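Training component of the fellowship. As part of building independent skills, the fellow (R.M.) carried out the full modelling exercise for a liganded target. The chosen ligand was glutamine. The inputs are recorded below so that the supervisory panel can assess the work.
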Amino acid sequence: MKRVGVIGLQGDVEEHILQTRRAAEEAGESVDVRWVRSREELEDLNGIIIPGGESTTISRLIDKFRMRDEIFRIREEGGVIMGTCAGCIILAAEGDETVEIKGVRLLKMLDVKVDRNAFGRQRESFEAPVHLVLPPTGGFGGWEGDFPGVFIRAPRFIRVGEGVEVLGWLGEEPVMVKAGRVLSLTFHPELTEETLLHRYFLSLMDE
Ligand code: GLN
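Fellow's submitted model of the complex:
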């Protein structure tokens, strides 16, 4: 049985838990999905979600609860990590100047640079279709089409390193990327009815 934890220190944790459970049900899998509030609760996971919220707060709590090296260990042992919005910022190798000013402690798991509140300066939040091209995985047949993108004070990828695949676009702009078993999304797939991206996340654990 797969075990997934949503790092539940601050942010939209509950929505990710429910969406992962719904995705598991639709995929006909039994998955243990739990709210992770301590280092110990990370121990036996195959998948981790770092949710949206406030990247400064979430990243500081990750360090306060000594979760950083456990998250790296899980990735090294073949676990899948997905960050959405604030989680996307925390996974990045580099951020704009506000990352330093606000004291966001990046995990630097993905070779991308993010502008932390790029869309937010223009408009707080919006919904727009994201064009996805998801390659097939072990238990997932691949998918191409539009997904309802919910953007809330969203970051923007301003550099995508070599070896990082772009799987989702808002117009010409990358909004979902993947390198190995690390997925990063500037939008909120847990805030829609559509379980597709959580099913894709679960399927990467079979690879
Ligand atoms: N821009 C926010 C931050 O810097 C993230 C917003 C979100 O997760 N909805 O943390």
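The panel noted the following from the submitted structure. The pocket of glutamine is lined by residues 52-55, 85-86, 89, 116-117, 152-153, 155 (CB under 6 Å). The longest strand covers residues 125-134.
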